[in-house]
Sequence to fold (239 residues):
Amino acid sequence: MDKKVIIELSDISKTYANGEIRTTVLQDVQLSINEGEFAAITGPSGSGKSTLMSIIGLLDSASTGRYILDGKDVSKLSEDELAEIRASRIGFVFQSFNLLPRATVLKNVQLPLVYANIPKATRLKMAIKALEMSKMENARYSNLSNQLSGGQMQRVAIARALINDPAIILADEPTGNLDQKTGLAVLDTFKDLNKIGKTIIIITHDHSIASHAKRIIELRDGKIINDYLTNHKNDRGLR
Fold:
């Protein structure tokens, strides 16, 4: 059975204007991603990969082109509808973790549910489940986030991204602040999440990190220059 297309970009371009100066960072991008894929978007600094992630994640909009997300044309959705999709369908993981430094692990993970007015007991159960999925050791649940290692903070960030059981996880340079061993452990967590059906999209400038995905999409100067499946015979360790 063919996989469902969950993300479809057609002729996507993005141009920023600063006075009379116009800078185009994406040009006529064509991209489809199926439900359950594990893809890496890679390229050098300035290639447009973070802008592409922002558009996919509904954090920014394209200047031209069409974006169909899960069967819906996002250009026809209101800001409230876009916010609802971000909250329920997309989980974000960032290089800088974006945790509250003086909040506990459990409180950091529960934060999106607090804003959604989910009852406290339900929030706690959902947070524990998400932390278990991210492989965070339970002895650390009561620690403040500023008492954690980089790898532990990224696991908390992954758990927070999972809290609403999103279909898509977008990870922007998720190993950028981690040592190699810790980075590999975090990548293994993404692989495990992909095995249970999550669509994983990693943004990275590091090709050795991208090689852990099942598909690599290479950007340069705002254009996709390569798009191919990877060979995972050697699935452990950086190649």
